[in-house]
Amino acid sequence: MQIQGHSAIVTGGGSGLGEAVARALAAAGAKVAVLDVNAAGAQRVADDIGGIACTCDVTNSDSVTAALDAATAAHGVPRIVMNIAGIGTAKRIIVKDGQPAPLEDFERVVRINLIGTYNVARLAAARIATTEPLADALNSGERGVMVNTASVAAFDGQVGQQAYSASKGGVVGMTLPLARDLAQWGVRVCTIAPGIFATPLLKQLPEPVQQSLAASIPFPKRLGDPGEFASMALEIVRNGHINGEVI
After folding, report:
1. Minimal CA–CA distance to 86: which of 176, 160, 149?
2. CA atoms of 169 and 155, how far apart (whole Å)
3. DSSP three-state, residue 145
4. What was the pLDDT predicted at 207?
5. How far, CA to CA in Å, does 203 sit from each of 109, 199, 235, 242?
6. 76 in the Ramachandran plot: left (φ > 0), alpha (ψ -120 to 50) or beta?
7. Residue 227 pLDDT grade (very low, low, confident, very high; cuts 50, 70, 90)
8. Are 187 and 129 in contact (CB under 8 A)?
9. pTM for this predicted structure
10. Non-local CB neighbours of 118 within 8 Å, separated by 6+ positions
11. Where are the beta strands (DSSP E) in the chain?
12. CB neighbours of 173 closer than 8 A, spacing ≥ 6?
């Protein structure tokens, strides 16, 4: 489908990978709503790209509904859904003094990364299903496209990444069922599972740690640039034959 002129939402759009995607979509002519639990970050990006900012907690249905209402009022029903909001914390299952890790920490990561992704997907898909098929799409009957975000940790989790890997593995696992479920409505669904990217979260690590992580990559030996993630996200939108894939 074409990007020019279409309504798009980007969760987690106030920083990192989400910010890069929001900026790339706007540069390609989309009308972008930037959704983020960080209101200041969302507003900053929205001001820069001429979009709108929506403070949004992806785990809260009322919050997501309000954001979708605002995006629809400003730009029309979002045809492009970029599900990028997430957190990445690491904690070993046995912590200080041999105590088990708090269950609440595991639940929080899964709730935001997995349940939050599904929550946005279900609420946005229900709206897209009410729209007319796109006139400018190569695929007859296509109404929209959804891109979710997993991680290489879904396949290759490291020490302390139990919660993160489980949450991202869940996103991977629901990609194909979502694509099959929404095929009748003409909505494509794909997931990107990025490796190690230079996001604000990662940049909080000491420089030697960042360099060590970059050196662990066979080729190219560097951290990914958020713009490269955004390029892939936009290619999924444009390439009408990609569906149900984890890249």
Report:
1. 149
2. 7
3. strand
4. 84
5. 20, 6, 27, 32
6. left
7. very high
8. yes
9. 0.94
10. 174
11. 7-11, 31-36, 52-55, 80-83, 144-149, 187-192
12. none
Q: In the predicted model, is pLDDT for residue 162 greater than 80? A: yes
pLDDT at 137 over 80: no
DSSP conformation letters of 101-122: PPHHHHHHHHIIIIIHHHHHHH
CB 8: neighbour CB atoms within 10 A? Answer: 27
Task: Give the active site residues.
Answer: 164
Q: Would you state the structure tokens that stand for residue 220, as one six-digit string?
A: 């190219």
Lowest-confidence range among 13-22, 64-73, 92-101? 92-101
pLDDT digits (tens, 9 = 90+) for 209-224: 778 888 888 899 888 8
Picking from 91, 134, 94, 130, the residue whose alpha carbon sits closest to that of residue 110 is: 91
Where do we find the tokens 């060590």? 212
Instruction: Kindly tell me if the per-residue pLDDT of 144 is higher than 80.
Output: yes
Confidence band (pLDDT; 50, 70, 90) for 88? confident
Predicted pLDDT of residue 157: 85
Single-letter amino acid, residue 22:
A
Pairing, β 52-55 against β 80-83: unpaired
Q: Contact 128/187 with Cβ under 8 angstroms? A: yes
* Vertex 156 angle, CA 236 and 86, to 5°: 55
Give me 12's structure tokens: 């987690």
Strand order through the sheet with 31-36: 52-55, 31-36, 7-11, 80-83, 144-149, 187-192
* Cα–Cα dist 32/52, whole Å: 7
Please say whether the beta carbons of 226 and 20 come within 8 A: yes
